[in-house]
Amino acid sequence: MFSSASNAQASSLLRYPLRFKLVAIVAVLLFAAALVVATLAAWRQENLTQSLREDTAWVVYKLDRDAVQLLNHLLAVTREPLSPAAHEELNLRFELLYSRITLLNDGEVSNLLQQIDTARELLSQIQQQLDVLDIMFTPYNALELNQLPVASLEDELQALTRLTERLVIAINGYLAESATEERAQLSLLYKLLMSLIIGMSLAAFLVIAFLVREMRESAAIRRNQEKLGRQLEVTAKQAQAANQAKSDFLAMVSHEIRTPLNGVIGMSELLRESASPAQVEDYAQTIHDSANQLLAMINEILDFSKIEAGYLTLETSPTELKPLIDSVVVLFAPRAKMKGLALTVNVDALVPTWVLVDAGRLRQILLNLIANAIKFTDHGEVRVRVSSTVEQLLFEISDTGCGLSEQQQQRLFEPFQQADASVARRFGGTGLGLAICKRLSEAMQGRLGVKSTPGQGSTFWCELPLIAADPVATSLPPVPKRDFAGTTLLLVEDNAVNRKVAMGLLARLGCDIVWAESGHDALAMVQSQQVHLIFMDIQLPDMDGLTVTQRLREQGGWLASVPIVAMTAGGAEDDRQRCLAVGMDDYVTKPLSLSALSNVLALQLSSLDTMPLQALAVIPGLTGEQSLLNSDTLSMLKTALGEASMIQLIMLYHQQVSDYSAQLAACLAATPLTPEQEQQVARLAHQLRGESLSMGADKIAELAKQLETLAKTQRSTSTQLDEVFSTLRLAAAHTHAALERWSRDHLSG
């Protein structure tokens, strides 16, 4: 039936008139021609569109390149003074750059850009940026002082280049999207080549996806770089601020160190000249005050560095609050009275008598706050008030001083900061005190702050957690005494200055001192004499004081129980623990003072008041005073020179023996000795023998003669020389103590 129907339709067509056939053929031809023309028109339109896109991309690229070149040229020509010709070239380049934006705002290029949202926004921003630059690029003769605002131009041009770069990326993205659409259309036109077109489309899609991914990654990297750049800028500013703070700190510390040093050096120079007793006392007091000021500043710096390094340790224990506060306030009563200030204390009745707190750190905070209040108050009063709530303990130190502004309060607790430069010039200081107090209060789970009004005074407050504690019965330490006559001490110290200071202070307390310069000398010394107490330096040239202490304890006998006190410049808590762990009994830090040494001696030798002293075990012929000194020679020198000159002669002899010992030790350190070194040893021993004979130090003279004879003997060995020299050094230490005893017994000075 279908075949018959089709045959009927074909037969009916055959029956159409010829003109209908012609019209159909013409229509088909016209349709085909129309398709061809439409295809050609579409192809041509596509070519024109593509050409327009490429032209737009080229113009945008040239805009970006011109902006970059203008920035580079600006940086190049401004390295030297700008000439009129260079200035005109800059203006010409800017006008060329400005013409590029005109092309983008007119014609078909503008229509194309208006279709792209991102490009339209960026083009508006670029136009605004060029208008800003247009104002800044002025003719050479219209410039003030013939100076272009180079820095501003650079910043604005950099901003412009970033915008043009983004515009280039946006145009390229648009071209990529257009290419994607064209490929999609081609896939529809070539359905017959489906397999090939699918493969090409897949390849194009993968390429586009990879490009998009690359673009996204590039954008992310660029964003990260920009973020990193901003972070680097912040870090650079912080580093600059830190560097400036360090420079300010070094300058301040240099000034603060030089101020007390000036007092020490200047007054010591004056002490070398003749002066009245009153002047000598005044000079000595100035030196003492300057040294204490220097020590306080160094302690502040060390405390702050310890806190910043995280080495701060708290020792919380039951503390009776009122005596602690009174002990702090009583220290400042003379200073307040001198300035005419009223210093009052008010402890609220509700405050518990005993609290759990680190008494040492609380004392440090109160000392600093009260000292500042008195320092910055010229008239009126300073009030110390203690109150409490259920959970908090509040300390308030109020004054009627100059007060602080809001700006000053904001930076007051920063390290190395003071209220202003005038305060630093007038009162000095490191600017660390309040920073240390704030960190100490925070370490104790508290807070520190200030309330102040300029011209009306300030109130510094410290808030700490309140933990009530039960009373603790504490036994009072023995009252320190100042006379330890009959006490024999061994001082192990390699530094001559430190040794001289320690021996002078201990001699003032009535002690007899023998000394050793090294650990080996100390080990040899205890074989020749028993002492009541040993002061041990930690840093020794041959072995550290901890090792020496361990070897002393291992020998047993009286060395197992003799008190050994560490004496070092270190102040860290772990140093103290290490000293106690190896068998030391106590620990004192330099600089030394009479009170500190007296306290240690009283604490460690308290049993001497009730127990008779054990007889000292000595090596015969070495420590007997009759064999060490020639009393007839000393008496003759005293009669001939007088007591004052005799005292100076003994001091000079001590120094000479120390110098000869150091030179001999340096010569004998070489193994084997050269002939020149042997001659040097013989010469030094001969000189030491002569001076010792003149001084009445017969034992040193005898040993020096033995050393001289060995040095001149070609068959002598280094071991023999070392043995004699070690005995000589021991004799020198005992002779020193014997001379000091003779001076106390026979000289009134």
Structural features:
disordered N terminus; five-stranded parallel sheet; 749 residues; five-stranded mixed sheet; alpha/beta; elongated
Give the number of DSSP strands. Answer: 12
Largest sheet: 5 strands, mixed
Q: Strand order, biggest sheet?
A: 2-4-5-7-6
Share of residues in strands? 5-15%
Rg, alpha carbons: 47 Å
The percentage helix is 55-70%
Q: If helices are DSSP runs of H or I spanning 4 or more residues, what is the number of helices? A: 24
Termini distance? 155 Å
Question: What is the mean pLDDT?
Answer: 78
Shape: elongated
Residue stretches low in confidence (pLDDT < 50, at least 5 long) are: 1-16, 421-428, 609-621
Structural class of the secondary elements?
A: alpha/beta
